[in-house]
Each structure stands twice: as C-alpha cells, then as structure tokens.
Amino acid sequence: MKNIRNILNSRFKRNGNFFMEIINILGFKPKDINFYKKAFTHRSMNIKDSKGNAINYERLEFLGDAMLSAVIASHLYLEVPSGDEGYLTKMRSKVVSREHLNELGRELNLIGLVESKIPPGQFGDNIHGNLFEALVGAIFLDRGYKYCEKFIYKRVITPYVDIETLEGKVISYKSLLIEWCQKEKRTFGYNVYEDTGNDEVRHFSVKLSIDNKVVSKARATSKKKAEEKASKRAFFVFQNKMSKML
Amino acid sequence: MKNIRNILNSRFKRNGNFFMEIINILGFKPKDINFYKKAFTHRSMNIKDSKGNAINYERLEFLGDAMLSAVIASHLYLEVPSGDEGYLTKMRSKVVSREHLNELGRELNLIGLVESKIPPGQFGDNIHGNLFEALVGAIFLDRGYKYCEKFIYKRVITPYVDIETLEGKVISYKSLLIEWCQKEKRTFGYNVYEDTGNDEVRHFSVKLSIDNKVVSKARATSKKKAEEKASKRAFFVFQNKMSKML
C-alpha cells in the first residue's frame, strides 16, 4: 500500500492543489485522498500495484454507479409515494442516464483533474460521466454510504432531480420563467455575451436578472442553451414559488 | 399514518408472533414494525392509504433491489481487487439473479408471513425473491444502509457468495467434500431420509456427518439435491480449510 501511495503522491505532486480542489467539489474533507487520486487516474497511466492489479478509475465506476442507483432509488421511493415500480425504474434511469452523468461530470470540470497520457481532447464524451461515477465510488470507500448520499443530494438531487421535469412536464424553463415573471409582475433580463475562453468551440455566457438582481449564470455552446440553463438554475432558486405554476 | 397503522395492525394481529418472526429473520430488532408489515402485504389485500396510494410490497422490491445491488457491488469490489468492471458486473448479476433471490426467500420461508387473498399455492416462483427484495427495502427504511449491509452479509454474502463458486470453479460441493475428507483422513456419512411433511411434493432431508459429528443438514426435493445442499453448507463451515483445495 505504501508503494502505491508513493506512486500516486509523486504523480499528483505537480497538481499541488488537488486536495483543495477535491474538498471544493465534495463539500467535505476526504479522510484518505488516495481514493480520489485513484478516481482521477486514467488507464493510460498504466499503473499497477505490487500484485499486478491495475490502478485506475474503471473499477470505481462500477461501485459509484451502484451507489448512485441506490441513493436515487431511495430518494424517488420517498418522494413519489404514488409511483409504482415501473414508474420508479423509469424515473431513475432518466436521472442516471449516460447523458445526464456526462453533464454532471462536465459541470464539475472533473476532466481537469485527470492524470492521463492521452490528451484531453481525445477523450470521448463519456469520460465526464465515468469520472463522476468513479468519484462517487471513491466517496463511498472513503466515507461510507451517508457521505455518498450527502454528495449526491448536493450535486444531483437538489439541483437536478425534479419530478415534473423528469416526467417531461416542463418543456422549457425559459418560458416557464417568463410566464412566472409576468404573472408576478417582476422584470427580468438575459444578458448574453460571447465567452469562448480557452475552449476550441465557441461558447456563450449568460446572466439572468430578476428585478435587476442577477439570480443565475450559465455557459454553453449556444445562446439558446445558455439561456435555458440559466433559467433552469433560476427555477431551482425559486422552486417553491414557481412550481406552483406547473 | 395512524390510520394505516391501524389497518395493518388489525390484519397482523392474528399473526401474533409476526414481530418475533421478523426479529428471528433479521437478527436484530426492528424500530418500526410497520415497514415489515408492508413488506409482507400482497397487492391482493387491496389496501390503500388516505391518499389512495396502494400499500403492498411492490415498491419496496424496487428499493430492496437497489440496496442489494449496492451492497453486493461493494463486497465484490473489495473482495476481488483483480476483477475489472465487466467481471464485477457479471459476478454481481449471478448473486442477484432471480433464481438465487428466489432461493434466498424460500430458505427463509418468507411466504409464510405474507398476508394475501390469493392462496399461497397460486403464487408464482418469483414471489420468494420479490419478498426477499421487499424485506431488504424495509430494513433500509427502518434502520438505514448499515443494517441493510449487515443483513445482506448474514443472509447472502457469508453463506452464499463465494468467488470460486461464482466463477463456476466448484462443480459439485459433494465431490469437493469427499475429496477433502479423503485427503484429511476423516470419515463422513450422508444420512438421508424421506421428510415430505406437509408439502405436496416429496421431500428428503439429509444429515451430513464428519468424524461422526453432524456438521450440516439440508432438505430438498431429491436425495441428490439435499446432499449437495448439505455439502455446500459444510463447505462454508470448513471454508478456510477446504478452499485451499481449489
């Protein structure tokens, strides 16, 4: 074990703020940072332990996926007492869809923490979701189920798991937001500007203000997407008030 | 909620020892017996809460299945450090196969606790596994993940999850046991007798002795099956010693 620690430590040394970045993502302090180092080690690094077992995040994906499924299952069970097994299964599969997991990983910019010999541009889209699952697996090993649950509530359930949305009742958050503002006689404005930064693809940022106060920000590859994302975030800020309109 | 409690209580009253039987199965005391009552209420009872939501074990199956998958995943992750994602997924699906879950439910005779308007003989085979899943779901709601894990270790992992078996390396426990006894110069004997009891189908019981001491018992619908089952149980009694032969 000491040996693996040394290998991992030397690799992550140049990434001096790895520990701080992990705390930032988790919202709590890891007990053993090595689980997280493993969660961000790509197979291309070709690291093995003394018994020849590969050290990378792939096995952690399996574990994280199982924990994610369990936490989402228990949330949906309690949240929707009227939903039968088929309904609960369908709703869960929407939350843990490949697409959604990729979005979660991308939002946290997990790819920025990966140690790999492959240039980031060559990773497929699924790496975002895979890293997210691996991170959940690492949290389980480091701190157990309760912290896993805490993290999934913070990063998945609270911001994204909304029954109306999952059921497809909300088509556009932007139109929902506009409708709500008009009804409540509030002013609103989307301030969009190009913000490509270091990305290869063109990006846009948007600030959404309600009553002249910025309530949410978002960034995406089109103006429309960025506006929708900001609206969705604002929706969760005003959730109780706005969801009465559904 | 009080209303539901009353409904469930009156139903389970005639089953006065329900609480004791549950303790016996769990190996610990439930905090709220109502979760378990729900886990043994068949949809044919047609019970609804004040909001019209059906009260039966079907939703609990969904929850229990998720918890079972999570606990087995974490066990396999830790137990087989050399297994990749594909291997872990395959091994887990063997443990949580419909067939295996039915066996687990049958062994605990969970069907004996069910409240139903359908005669037990008319239930399909899957009811055993479904009740087992529902029971795990009830444990999660009653006592949380840790107790769920504890129960699954006691009832599933310790007695049944053996990597060599899952990998199909052990073909027959009886031949393994005989080989081991011969090597260790121990005497053994299978004492088989018909033991149909109240069952409609013919049953056999067997007592397996090693060095003239009964080490395990089993009961099944054929002599061969009963012997194999008793050998499997003996295998786990002598696990450390016998597994060296694999």
Q: Which strands sit side by side, in order, in the main sheet of chain A?
A: 1-2-3
**Major sheet attributes of chain A:** 3 strands, antiparallel
User: In sequence order, what are the helices and strands of chain A, one letter per element?
Assistant: HHHHHHHHHHEEEHH
- Helix percent band of chain A: 55-70%
Mean pLDDT of chain A: 88
Total DSSP helices of chain A:
12
Structural class of chain A: mainly alpha
In the CATH hierarchy, what is the superfamily of the largest domain in chain A?
Ribonuclease III domain
Q: Count the E strands of chain A.
A: 3
Low-confidence stretches of chain A: none
Number of domains of chain A: 2
Can you tell me the CATH architecture of the largest domain in chain A?
Orthogonal Bundle
Strand content of chain A: 5-15%
Q: Could you walk me through the main structural features you see in this protein, from its secondary elements to its overall organization?
A:
The structure is a homodimer of 246-residue chains. Chain A has 246 residues and is mainly α. Chain A folds into 2 domains: 2-161, Ribonuclease iii, N-terminal Endonuclease Domain, Chain A (Orthogonal Bundle); 173-245, 2-Layer Sandwich (Double Stranded RNA Binding Domain), CATH 3.30.160. In chain A, 56% of the residues lie in helices and 9% in strands. The longest helix of chain A has 22 residues, at 58-79. The termini of chain A are far apart. In chain A, 33% of the residues are buried. Chains A, B: Its EC number is 3.1.26.3. Chains A, B: GO terms for molecular function: metal ion binding; ribonuclease III activity; rRNA binding. Chains A, B: Its cofactor is Mg(2+). Chains A, B: Residues 19-144 form the RNase III domain.
